[in-house]
Amino acid sequence: MIKEIEFTKMHALGNDYIVIDESIDEVIPEESKNKLSEVICTRRFNVGADGVVFACKSDKADIRFRIFNSDGSEAQMCGNGIRCLAKFVYDKDIVKKDVMKIETMEDIKEARLTVVDDTVKDIEIDMGKGFFIPEEIPAVAPSGNTTEFIDEEVDVEGEKIRMSAVSVGNPHAVCFTDTNIDDINLDFYGPRIECHEAFPEKVNVHFVNILSPEEIDILTWERGAGFTYACGTGTTSCVLLGYKQGLLNEHVHAHLSGGDLDITVTDCGDYLTAVMKGEAITVYEAKMNVEL
């Protein structure tokens, strides 16, 4: 069956998405979402994107956020994608609030929008707690440590690489390195760390240069998507891990391939939380025919 659907193309720091409104009725049948996302995200042969975002009705919050990667897999959370969703539902009068509650697979996130003359300038997302226990990430520390995965030595095809891991709704591995990230062969290391046995559900991968305790550069390989220009949960993870290891302060300005994000960490004693701030951009609106 061929069906015409409406969509909005958006991006956050170059991380681009196809956004579909399902706030009233289901547009894409549940059994078709995975395959359809894989097809329409294929660049040059379709619309092309890093993922597909669905704005769904929620019984728990103002709106429900669902995101499918370009390989068709569904992700628990995406910081850049959720900022696009917040702007989308505000602009479409679906949720006309400058503070809104968004349901994700993990929990309820709060989004705070800076709005000037009815235009969304930037969005703050309360990213919630960081989870460092390997079982909760999930991850298996090579040292056997079951309380945290911090500065572990991981064997990547015979090369020992120091990395740390955390979950902020999805799993992230972070490598703080003195090697300039422009010189890192991401096509080699990205997929090998993503699929490493230390990460049973795969992992997002980030290489980080620390410029100062309040400024970093990040290179990102996303689980299920490959190289991406930016990753909101990944940036949050880098800052949380840097703060936990005493490498970064609580306020950090992060430079990504597609632009900048600001992360603020709050140390609550027994746990760490973070707030992410950045923009989201609407590129165009269109219709397309899809085969269901």
DSSP helical segment count? 4
Specify the overall morphology.
globular
Q: Structural class, judged by helices and strands?
A: mainly beta
- Corresponding CATH architecture of the largest domain: Roll
- How much of the sequence lies in strands comes to over 45%
CATH superfamily (homologous) name of the largest domain = Diaminopimelate Epimerase, Chain A, domain 1
Radius of gyration equals 18 Å
Report the order of strands and helices.
Answer: EEHEEEHEEEEEEHEEEHEEEE
N- to C-terminal distance? 5 Å
Overall pLDDT level: 96
The total count of strands amounts to 18
- Please indicate the count of domains: 2
Give start-end ranges of low-pLDDT stretches: none
Profile the largest sheet.
18 strands, mixed
* Highest CATH level, the class of the largest domain: Alpha Beta
Helix coverage percent: 10-25%
CATH fold topology of the largest domain: Diaminopimelate Epimerase, Chain A, domain 1
